[in-house]
Amino acid sequence: MTADGAQPVIEVKGLVKTFGDKTVVDEFDISVPKGAIYGFLGPNGSGKTTTIRMLCGLLTPDAGTGRCLGYDIVRQSDNIKEHVGYMTQKFSLYEDLTIRENLDFMARMYKVPERREKVNGALEELGLANRSHQLAGELSGGWKQRLALAACLLHRPDLLLLDEPTAGVDPKARRDFWDEIRRLSDAGVTVLVSTHYMDEAIQCDNIAYIAYGKKLIDGPAADIPDMVGLNTWRVEGPDLADLAVSLEGEDGIEQVARFGSALHVSGMDEKRLEAAIAPYRKDERRIWSRRQAGLEEVFIHLMSGSTDNFARAKAG
Ligand SMILES: Nc1ncnc2c1ncn2[C@@H]1O[C@H](COP(=O)(O)OP(=O)(O)OP(=O)(O)O)[C@@H](O)[C@H]1O
Prior knowledge:
The chain is of the alpha/beta class. It has helices at 48-55, 77-82, 99-109, 115-126, 141-153, 171-186, 198-201, 224-228, 240-248, 270-281, 295-305, 309-315; strands spanning 10-19, 22-32, 37-41, 63-68, 71-72, 84-87, 159-163, 190-195, 206-211, 214-220, 231-236, 255-259, 262-267, 287-292.
């Protein structure tokens, strides 16, 4: 149960998936509220897609239990699939079919009632009604993405899975895409997004950070920096590259990261961090300011602290 008494849309415990000798997902637990935009963040190959596919019954876990949309993820996976829209990382529609043919094909696959009306409606909504006979392969990246989203919404899914949805899409199209996702979420559709882009992560209500198959942290996006408890100072001025090298060697400084024309210097222990930067703050050419750690710093920190159990498995 969530704080408002509603059942979570997804609730799973102890999910495990192994491919060969590699444990790709290791003891994964999560609870996803209805209508949330939940981001799965982590580097390439960390197990985000595999986790999402197990949560929705598209892949059978080796261990673990749970429910998605009220159905058991192992025994009732077919029921779950009927209510899920899945937008894969690569454009998965047929490039040599027209825009209309692609939508019509998807509508048939999902046995959408009043197919013709729904397809016409989707074409109108997309603004593609007068280009419906154009081949999908001729569309730009942004338009392909809009078409793929429209196709996986035809059967009105309750849960939407987006695998790195805005990779290779221009900034305006990215913004429009995220506006549409927010509208869907407001209408009660639950959205799981896998990404390793920070600008997608900050659009999410909740975030689970996954590295090497393990969930390092999850919770409301706004609370994650506080949950980690990282202290950060920002410094601007000349010779930042040299300064970064000196700071990195100091006791009490755990991370020095470049952000545009500034460095963000972070540590877990506030007193030790302040003592470490004190000598450098005497140099008046530079401006130092205390700042609240953001998601960016937190994720760099989490990544540097996580161990590569995939590499260990290979070595062992
Ligand atoms: N069917 C499979 N058979 C064997 N190995 C697999 C299979 N599916 C995924 N893997 C491996 O599992 C690991 C996790 O893959 P997954 O796609 O879940 O990660 P990801 O975090 O989504 O990465 P990306 O951002 O690159 O999509 C990778 O090392 C991948 O090669």
